[in-house]
Amino acid sequence: MRPLALTMGDPAGIGGEIALAAWASLHAEGPAFFAIDDPARLAAINPRVPLAPIASPEEAPARFAEALPVLPLPLAVPATPGNPDPRNGPVVIAAIERAVALALAGRAAALVTNPISKSVLYAAGFAHPGHTEFLAALTGGAQPVMMLVGPELRVVPVTVHVSLRAAIATLSTDLIVRTGRIAAAGLARDFGIARPRLALAGLNPHAGEEGALGSEDREIVAPAVAALAAAGIDATGPFPPDTMFTPAARARYDAALCMYHDQGLIPLKTLDMAHGVNVTLGLPIVRTSPDHGTAFDIAGRGSADPSSLIAALRLAAAMAAQRERAA
């Protein structure tokens, strides 16, 4: 199988540390991946991990068992753990651009992104709200949908990185339907679920209590459920958010559509923070990422947990293989 492309993320964060730890965990059995990174930076983080600079992704599978393949991309200035430097922002952006281009060209099976710092990239002139929007622009402008995947739960937030006030103002039947369609298509295409079951969370306590606790569930969410069902998607709800994440409830759906960010991410991370994976649906390429940030506060200490990155690499490989089977 073609190797996965792993971006460096913010070089002052824990991306390099967990990349090296992921290779140490996966080098015997795979999946094979290569890092788009500065070999000197990685060598300084952990000189005990062998590195294999490569000229092309095609070299990575043969080198992976003995060393971490690195497609070199030098930093502008040396990285200091915990102290991000905007001068390295263009290099971080270039790593993403290169990885996307390789995935679009079929030379990388999938894209796995280490965490970035949006504020650092903004200082370097980054023009996109975040990672996901940048990936959408690089791959043709499709509407991306974020899904968080854990061992026991998949959640799709309809509104994402906005305030709760803005989430409520933004929420619409059309937005829920578009998100649900992309989620259902992604579950079928990338996870091999022939008829995905979507459970939609209510916005308000008790899913609005028939309008007594808010009209949004009756006027916005319920029509979206009906529209998705009319389109042939197995969609149910809206359900009271405080009861739809119990073990018995989770057994009745393949993904939960949640109306705002924390409504979905709190239960997922409570169930298993270490193994959660951020997946972007709706792109022409497979993209996964750890479900945590740069962790500047612990960078350089050698204490970062690579579990989420390892899960992201494994899931990316499984999704890419599923796409190939379905092609």
Entry keywords:
Isopropylmalate Dehydrogenase, alpha/beta, 12 helices, 12-stranded mixed sheet, about 325 residues, 2 domains
Structure description:
The protein is α/β, with parallel strands linked by helices and 327 residues long. The protein folds into two domains: 1-142 and 285-327, Isopropylmalate Dehydrogenase, CATH 3.40.718.10; 145-282, Isopropylmalate Dehydrogenase (3-Layer(aba) Sandwich). 40% of the residues lie in helices and 16% in strands. The chain contains twelve helices and twelve strands. The chain has a twelve-stranded mixed sheet, with helices on both faces. Helix 1 links the parallel strand 1 (4-7) and strand 2 (33-37). Helix 8 (173-191) packs across helix 9. The radius of gyration is 20 Å and the shape is globular.
Task: List strands and helices in order, with pairings.
Layout: E1 4-7, H1 15-26, E2 33-37, H2 39-45, E3 51-53, H3 60-63, E4 68-72, H4 89-104, E5 111-112, H5 118-123, H6 131-138, E6 145-149, E7 154-157, H7 164-170, H8 173-191, E8 197-201, H9 216-230, E9 234-239, H10 247-250, E10 255-258, H11 261-272, E11 277-281, E12 287-290, H12 307-326
Parallel strand pairs: 1-2, 1-5, 2-4, 3-4, 5-12, 7-10, 8-9, 8-10
Antiparallel strand pairs: 6-7, 6-11, 11-12
Helix pairs in contact: 8-9
